[in-house]
Design goal:
Elements: H1 5-13, H2 35-57, H3 63-69, E1 73-75, E2 99-101, H4 104-122, H5 128-139, H6 150-153, H7 164-190, H8 198-216, H9 230-236, H10 250-258, H11 264-277, H12 280-292, E3 320-326, E4 334-343, E5 346-353, E6 356-365, E7 368-375, E8 378-386, E9 392-399, E10 407-413
Parallel strand pairs: 1-2
Antiparallel strand pairs: 3-4, 3-10, 4-5, 5-6, 6-7, 7-8, 8-9, 9-10
Helix pairs in contact: 2-4, 2-7, 4-7, 5-9, 5-12, 7-8, 8-10, 10-11
């Protein structure tokens, strides 16, 4: 299970992304926006993004950078071309060396992510649903229909930007995110990247990140805005990693950005986050979350709430819905909900926590249940003891063959509404 809640807390500090890796997706998402919607935004995005290139980036380029990039133009087609079409954040620099392509479809998706982040944050909702959403797009059951567009899927109201605080925060992130993306793609053009082996491509991506971070530091824009869809990059980078991956994993990219920051506290946080993102358990968690997430589970929730599900009435020990806490060695306690189903002495069901849904299967003898659990590719055992009325339980859980080496687990019956 290895939930690593400390990582979740850190993710909430930096819930933005840099550049999306060109990996396979569960679906072509072209249909989440109507053509009329993209046509409505086309000229506005083209003008505002061109202003970022001309008024924010070009004035801070060094002479050598300006000479090499002076003929580069911005291209804003409706959709990306070829196998990039339908990817939600497909920004790229073609090998002709003269263009940075920022499709309207991808800009709209990025704009919506910024709005969702701002509205959730301003209204005190958990930001984990954004991470769950991007993981679902990579690994879950997704259809290219409007209900899977960011604002609809995340329960953000259509008038969210009428709140001036939301509008200001969303716009700030959208501007700085586009600035970093443009600089990353300009970095490819500046260094003359032309593909190569997987190892060479990873080197190219790191070099482009470094260029973007160095130039970004010369602008007046705050660096955190460039992390808008960083968690999308975490979710969409394939797991497990292999020598054939063409993009460095997110930890490497964060270190590149941290090296350019003048604020030591923020740089330290990014380095710690980078180490966490390289943890195999954390990367497995994105796969598990993506497979388990549904539109219903993405409804806005407070930071201390779990995703919603109908409670089952408890009418016997280890039967029905319970809410409690789990401790894990070295971490703070985190909330977990368990939904048990029981027939005779057999019990099975699901447990829900911040990083997804796991399965549980056990046998009851008296007021004791011995069980096995599994989540992603982790598994183990445990032992619960119920109160006499069956309304609560407590016990311990462990990894693999141990039933107690991981921590404690308790639960109290949920009264269904």
């Amino acid at each position: 299970m290895n939930v690593l809640p400390r990582a979740c807390a850190t993710f909430l500090l930096v819930l933005w992304a840099m550049m999306i890796a060109p990996t396979a997706f569960a679906a072509d998402l072209t249909g989440i926006y109507a053509q009329s919607t993209l046509e409505h935004w086309e000229q506005r995005y083209a003008r505002s993004t061109q202003r970022i290139l001309d008024e924010v980036i070009r004035p801070v380029l060094l002479d050598s950078e300006r000479r090499r990039l002076e003929r580069v133009r911005l291209d804003t087609p409706t959709h990306a071309q070829g196998d990039m079409q339908g990817r939600p954040l497909a920004f790229y620099a073609p090998w002709d060396g003269r263009r940075v392509v920022m499709p309207v479809f991808s800009l709209k998706f990025l704009d919506d992510l910024c709005t969702a982040y701002a509205w959730l944050q301003i209204n005190g909702y958990s930001l984990e649903t954004i991470t769950d959403y991007t993981a679902m797009l990579r690994y879950g059951d997704v259809r290219a229909t409007p209900e899977f567009a960011p604002l609809s899927a995340l329960g953000v109201p259509e008038d969210a930007l009428e709140d001036a605080r939301v509008d200001k925060l969303a716009l700030g992130h959208f501007v700085t995110a586009r600035t970093f993306i443009l600089l990353h793609e300009l970095g490819h053009l500046y260094h003359g990247h032309r593909g190569g082996t997987a190892a060479q491509k990873r080197h190219n991506e790191t070099e482009a990140d470094r260029f973007a971070a160095e130039v970004m530091a010369r602008t007046p824009l705050p660096p955190l805005g460039s992390l808008v869809f960083f968690m999308a990059d975490v979710s969409w980078a394939g797991y497990p990693s292999s020598d054939q991956d063409t993009h460095p994993i997110s930890g490497t990219r964060l270190r590149t950005l941290a090296a350019q920051l003048e604020a030591p506290t923020l740089a330290s946080r990014l380095i710690k986050l980078a180490a966490m993102l390289e943890d195999p358990d954390i990367r497995r968690s994105f796969v598990a979350v993506g497979k388990a997430t549904t539109l219903a589970s993405l409804a806005p929730r407070r930071p201390d709430q779990l995703s919603s599900a109908t409670a089952i009435e408890v009418n016997a020990a280890f039967s029905g819905s319970y809410l409690g806490q789990v401790t894990q060695v070295g971490d703070q306690a985190f909330p977990v909900r368990v939904d048990f189903k029981r027939e005779g002495d057999r019990v099975w069901g699901e447990y829900r926590f911040a990083l997804g849904v796991g399965k549980i299967d056990g046998r009851v003898s008296g007021n004791v249940m011995n069980f096995a659990w599994e989540w992603a590719d982790s598994y183990g055992r445990g032992r619960f003891e119920s109160t006499a009325d069956g309304k609560a339980f407590s016990g311990r859980w462990g990894y693999h063959d141990s039933a107690d080496n991981a921590g404690s687990w308790n639960g109290t019956a949920i009264v269904p509404h």
